[in-house]
Amino acid sequence: MTAIQQADQWLRRYRPVERPRVRLVCFAHAGGGPSAFRTWPAGLPSDVEVLAARYPGRQDRLTEPCIDRMEPMVEAVVEALTPLLDRPLVLFGHSMGAWIAYEVAQRVPVRALLVSGQVPPARRNSAPPGSARRGDGNGVYSEDALVAEVKRLGGYDAQLFENPELRDLVLPPIQSDFSLVATYRPGPPRMLDCPVHAFYGEDDADARPEDVAAWAEATTGPFTRNVFPGGHFYLTDHEAALLRELSFLPAVSRV
Question: 3-state DSSP call for residue 201?
Answer without folding.
Answer: strand
